[in-house]
Specification:
Blueprint lengths: L1 E4 L3 E5 L37 E8 L2 E9 H4 E5 L2 E4 L13
Antiparallel strand pairs: 1-2, 1-3, 3-4, 5-6
Length: about 100
């Protein structure tokens, strides 16, 4: 799973394994943007990924991936976590359950 920020900047990345055909993963990200070096302004707390890319990979072979928009495809599960609005379905190798 990879977080993508505005202007297609790649962000945090996380990996996990499937257990009984499903997975759970947490990828922490900071919402604070960097403070300007020369200007003494307060930090903004609006840094958010725009896209979440979920890929199914086995032995360096990518079988499937899906790109999800954070604003449309995720909901705020609690003040510090997002959860998908619906199940994420990826296709694996032929003959896999």
């Amino acid at each position: 799973m990879q977080l993508i920020y505005p202007k297609q900047k790649k962000g945090e990345l996380g990996e996990t394994t499937l257990e009984d055909g499903s997975f759970r993963i947490q990828i922490p990200f900071l919402t604070e943007s960097r403070r300007p070096v020369l200007v003494n302004l307060p930090e903004k707390c609006d840094r958010k990924p725009e896209t979440v890319v979920v890929s199914l990979v086995e032995a360096d072979h990518e079988y499937d991936h899906v790109s999800l928009e954070l604003a449309r495809d995720f909901k705020l599960a609690d003040p510090s976590a997002y959860a998908p609005r619906s199940a994420i379905v990826l296709r694996g190798p032929p003959g896999a359950p």
